[in-house]
Write the structure tokens for this entry.
Amino acid sequence: MSDLARPWRSVLYVPGSNPRAIEKVRSTPCDAVILDLEDAVAPAQKEAARTAVVAALAGGGFGMCGVLVRINDLGSPWGANDIAALSGSGVNSLLLPKVNGADDIARLDGLLHRDGGFSDSAVWAMVETPRAIVRAHEIAAAPKVAGLVMGTNDLAKDLRCDLGQDRAALMHALQTAVVAARAEGRIIIDGVYNAFRDEDGLRAECAQGRAFGFDGKSLIHPAQVAIANTVFAPSHEDVDLAHRQIYAYEEAQKTGQGVAVLEGRIVENLHVDQARRLIGLATAIAEREAAQ
């Protein structure tokens, strides 16, 4: 399944230094996993984490779950070694942190070509700095970039703002990133919710993220997966309405009308496009769940 076709409701970070957590995630119903070599791994554990992640990729067993590996910043002592170790591992996607512009993506691409073994690997970019927001479109437009992941904690730190309950201080940044992703047909994942035991707060932030246009939510704990999966999935009512919109529009087309009316609301071609995308997402989710 292509990245654009698969669901991305729940994207779970797993420390590369924790083999037990990596094993557990194979049976966790998240849509994707980020095997993390960066923030979740202490400097003294970097090499061991790298070895564990390469072994996990070789072992497979992730099924239909998308697998990304977040490498270390290329300006760090570990980034280039991460790439060398992952060469030929079959990694689906590399997630690059601290991206400030397209030149960072180009630098990564140069290292991938130098080491080889990444012909089928996509690149994802963390959007977590003020400069990344200013250059969001050039990052999204960079060759090989398949998706963006918001790093809201780092972004809030650099902006010296308070995330707050409604993330009002980040609203401009979040929407800027979504616009950039949509302009270039990229996937975009919302940032983490830190209070992993606060189910109501997580549910509200997932609903906000979906309303903003995000494809899913990055998560820090398996307990968050079920809520993200529910909120970012079309409901049965959504799917039923989508089918009825398509039918009403197609019937209107047969009589030469350019629009249809369903339950007192206009249905145009744009609504049909949205309805078909929603049905496609619901189908992909059903296939994902049937394979678990």
Remarks:
- The first strand starts at residue 10 and ends at 15.
- The chain has a mean pLDDT of 95.
